[in-house]
Amino acid sequence: MVETARYRTILQNRLNELQERLHEIDETLDSHQSRDWEELATEREGDEVLERMGSSGKVEIARIQAALLRMDEGEFGYCVECGDEIAPERLDVVPHTPFCRSCAEKRS
Ligand SMILES: [Zn+2]
């Protein structure tokens, strides 16, 4: 039996954390808009790092939302590929994973 309630808390906390961070990134990027060119050039590199962090955050958000959806459908904790139960040790490390270990290995 998969401990759905426990993972729901973990996933929701993580989701809140990511959304907060994305919001901060957006604000930082926005505040960099109307500045003079010299400053802009040095900030540009930092902004690219922030943008990358932002897009990897968005990917993780989408995965977490998909996992919460599977939870609502009672499918959380089962591999979407083969239907096997995903090992709790694996869910503890990547709670939003849709794959069991062997399917994840096959895909990578
Ligand atoms: Zn599988």
Describe this structure in words.
The structure is a single chain. This protein is mostly helical and 108 residues long. It is elongated, with a radius of gyration of 18 Å. The protein starts with a helix and ends with a helix. Helix content is 71%, strand content 0%. It has four helices and no strands. Bound molecules: zinc ion. The site of zinc ion (ZN) has 8 residues, from helix 4.
Radius of gyration: 18 Å
Helices and strands, in order, run as: HHHH
- Between the first and last Cα atoms, what is the distance in angstroms? 27 Å
Structural class from helices and strands? Answer: mainly alpha
- Taking pLDDT < 50 over at least 5 consecutive residues as the criterion, the unreliable ranges are none
For the biggest sheet, the summary is: none
Strand content is under 5%
Kindly report the average pLDDT value: 90
Unique ligands: zinc ion
**Range of helix content:** over 70%
Number of helices: 4
| Shape, principal axes of CA atoms | elongated
The number of distinct β-strands equals 0
Secondary-structure blueprint:
Blueprint: H1 4-31, H2 37-72, H3 88-93, H4 101-107
Zinc ion binds at residues 79, 81-82, 84, 99-100, 102-103.
Quick summary:
With 108 residues, this protein is mainly α. It has 4 helices and no strands.
Main traits of this protein?
108 residues, mainly alpha, elongated, binds zinc ion
